[in-house]
Amino acid sequence: MRVLVTGGAGFIGANFVHQTVRERPDAAVTVLDALTYAGDRTSLDPVADRVELVEGSITDAPLVDRLVGESDLVVHFAAESHNDNSLHDPSPFVQTNLVGTFTLLEAVRKHGVRFHHISTDEVYGDLPLDTPERFTPETPYNPSSPYSSTKAGSDLLVRAWVRSFGVQATISNCSNNYGPYQHIEKFIPRQVTNLIDGVRPRLYGAGLNVRDWIHVEDHNSAVWRIIEQGQVGETYLIGADGETSNLDVVRTLLEIFGRDPDDFDHVTDRAGHDLRYAIDASRLRAELGWTPRYTDFREGLEATVRWYREHEPWWRGAKALTEARYAASGQ
Ligand code: NAD
Ligand code: TDX
To answer: Cα–Cα distance between 174 and 283 in angstroms, integer?
Structure first.
């Protein structure tokens, strides 16, 4: 099977490519990635002999048309993915997340290629703290940020291309991922690399916001399950019952580093900061029999800390610039 992975040099995409190469010897993998600040070709070094990396944008229609025409399946991870960046400059979010997804949809429509669209729980907006309420496939879309609104728009494009043109597509909306190869602008790797450098973690606002953490390997095993057994035209929510407040994440990391659990700083809150995300993944579990493997969050965090300690050359080059950007916003 010829698989085209967009955004395969980014965090979740690179882990998806590694998992695919490891578990599916019959798959021929091509990655299409623009290698933005968030993409890193060295993330694919361990599988370089099995993967073709094409450097280019999903908004480049002739390139996309050619690569899609040579594929049996497109798994679409490529996106501008960071909420904070979308508050400073939404423009690349509109280009990549909306125009890029549109460009891919036109190509899969033309060539009749199976498409899986990777999306986020953030399309549903946020939930109050301390309620049992969770997102389901029936929850109305209500995105808060430029990032999540462009992801919501891209989901709606996929749904319309399924209904109007019979495109063979599935969609998954997943909660917050953690694990190896995550860019150090994101919450967990930012604090882990701060702690490696002896710097205090930085918590936005009071730190009471809740995210529903899932290990990236579990996200990707669910994606394969949906591709192989999911119903075309359907949306599946992916989550692993990992609700944790940001404050608890920071305290656990401080403990792992043998530091005082109160040794962190509160910094300027994110504008429009979503309070809580929580996924009800019962459809995925019941209909497709999927279960997560990483059920102990602390163990998963410990493994992630080890990975960042052992792969300092992978992240060191981006650290100073990333922190300078945050410092300019008081974060
Ligand atoms: P990431 O920012 O780490 O990686 C994105 C990749 O896309 C990078 O390699 C980048 O170079 C590439 N890219 C950006 N613009 C491109 C373009 N125009 N053409 C081709 N490639 C381009 O993001 P991630 O965290 O790995 O997220 C991957 C996908 O998963 C995104 O669609 C995101 O919305 C979704 N998602 C992420 C999470 C999470 O917790 N990180 C949770 C749910 C869903
Ligand atoms: O330094 C920080 N301090 C802090 O308290 C950073 C970078 C973040 N935070 C908070 C903000 C969020 O409540 O931590 C939480 C997680 O922040 P991010 O890692 O930026 O993730 P989030 O905004 O929740 O979005 C992530 O999950 C859903 C991904 O970046 C998205 O791509 C995905 O769709």
So the answer is: 13
294, two tokens:
């990483």
Ligand 1 centroid to residue 26 C-alpha, Å? 25
CB atoms within 10 A of CB 61: 15
Facing residues of 265 across strands? 202
Separation CA 247–CA 192 (nearest Å): 14
Report the atom number in ligand 2 closest to the C-alpha of 148. Answer: 34
Helix residue ranges, H only, 112-186: 146-165
User: What amino acid positions are annotated as catalytic residues?
Assistant: 121-122, 147
**182 Cα: distance to centroid of ligand 2 (angstroms):** 12
What ligand is nearest to the CA atom of residue 189?
2
Per DSSP (E only), the strands in 24-132 are: 28-33, 51-55, 73-76, 114-120
Ligand 2 centroid, distance to 52 Cα (angstroms): 31
The finding on whether 38 has its CB within 6 A of some atom of ligand 1 is yes
- Which of 120, 187, 204 most suits a substitution to test ligand 2, by most atoms within 8 Å of the C-beta? 187
DSSP class of 8: T
CB-based contact 46:9 (threshold 8 Å): no
**Could you tell me if the CB of 178 is within 6 A of ligand 1?**
no
Taking the C-alpha atoms of residue 6 and residue 105, their distance in angstroms, rounded to an integer, is 13
What are the pLDDT digits (tens) for 97-141? Answer: 999 999 999 999 999 999 999 999 999 999 999 899 999 999 999
ipTM for the predicted complex comes to 0.99
pTM of the model: 0.99
Q: Are 10 and 39 in contact (CB under 8 A)?
A: yes
